[in-house]
Amino acid sequence: MQDDEHDIEELTSDLARLRIAFVNVYFVGAERKRTATPWVLVDAGLTSGAAQILGIAAERYGPEVKPSAVILTHGHFDHVGALEALLGVWDVPVYAHALELPFLTGRSDYPPPDPTVGRGLVARLSPAYPERGTDFTGRVQPLPGDGTVPGMPGWRWVHTPGHSPGHVSLFRDADRTLVAGDAICTTRQDSVFSVVTQRKELNGPPAYFTIDWDKARQSAQALAALQPSIIATGHGEPMTGAAAAEALAALAADFDRQARPRKGRYVSQPVATDEDGVVMLPPPPRERRLPWGTMSGVAAAAVAGTWLYRRFNRRTPTS
Length: 319
Prior knowledge:
Blueprint: E1 2-3, E2 8-12, E3 15-20, E4 23-28, E5 40-42, H1 50-61, E6 69-71, H2 77-80, H3 83-89, E7 94-96, H4 101-104, H5 121-124, E8 140-142, E9 155-159, E10 168-172, E11 177-181, H6 192-197, H7 213-225, E12 230-233, E13 239-240, H8 242-253, H9 255-258, E14 272-274, E15 277-280, H10 292-312
Helix pairs in contact: 7-8
């Protein structure tokens, strides 16, 4: 059931999705407005969503009940934007995969987004998206090596790299619920139309920020093997039932044709990373003079991009 006022949707008795503009965060823990109950926040959305997250948390669990932890599927700007503000209110631990820590402790920036993947307008505008790493030194720590998820009994984390080096998805075997982060999407995240309308269709990770397509394919295959009954992603509406598992299996089986771009900076040669972050970037595409038609398209993209930015991120300060 979805609360239209807050864009929040109950997926199970203890899992709820909050959509902040074009990205989702998840509340894990049964709703208790009068008595304290343990709960966890998965991802932190955009900077502009801090007040919304705090408000929903207070409504669901009580104004004085902070989460036991924040779990990050990865550290891209639209998944950690509100984290600094939230940690200013909540003194709680943050967990991410060890290979994501360089980008969350100021040791490395993410690779530049790739507008040459040749998809929709959102991809073409991607050079405007922040790739700079954040610094939560002293607040963020690695997820346990045994696959358990702090504060989320019954769940396990699955390493699903490709979109980022330390990307993880979360899975609960008891009811086969999958929180996939950006390893897959349930909308075409490269398309303005799909982003605005939230048109539901299973897709690979957002192409403009994906840095290793072989690993992205392997991650999709690993998730398909779980046969999830609920697929909750970082972008797009949830998918449920047998059709969700079937769609994921079909995507994994035909990933290179359905999800992998035909061209792009990282399509043929992935970014090389290690425990310290980025160690090798493929060379950028050769610059070419743009024909008039393309320049007109770029101008139209700029107008649409400005509208999209104002529509979805009114309260986000520019950096």
